[in-house]
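pasting for ref
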Amino acid sequence: GPNVGRFAVRRLVVLVVAMAFITASCGSGPSPEVEARGLVPTTTTTTEPLPEGVVIVKIRNAAFSPQIVELDLKSKYIVRWVNEDAGVEYVVKERRETFVSPPLQAGDEFEIDFRSEDLGPKLWRYETTRGLQRITGTIDARPSQ
């Protein structure tokens, strides 16, 4: 009858209020308004803005995306590699092995701050492999001309 629908709605409101309370007490996660509208993202990483200075390089389908990254070392100075290839492990390394990541499983991340004294403003070429395939990328941290 008509009471069944009303009960379901009331239960949903109680659930949303309970979720809002839990979220507020944790101090992280989507806002109660977002949850109330049912717009909760499937992963929390999509809701967080990138930290200042970070550029993401995705490893997907045996390729770096973007393949070329330009850093000005003021507003952009950290490169974060994210392995998005399920079931494939990658090691990202600079050609002269100035930096080498640990083995990255799907979902793993590795980042380098190019303001470091060891690195500095120059052209960096890096690579990884998938089987016999060599995958290359470039980071241009040279000052703009």
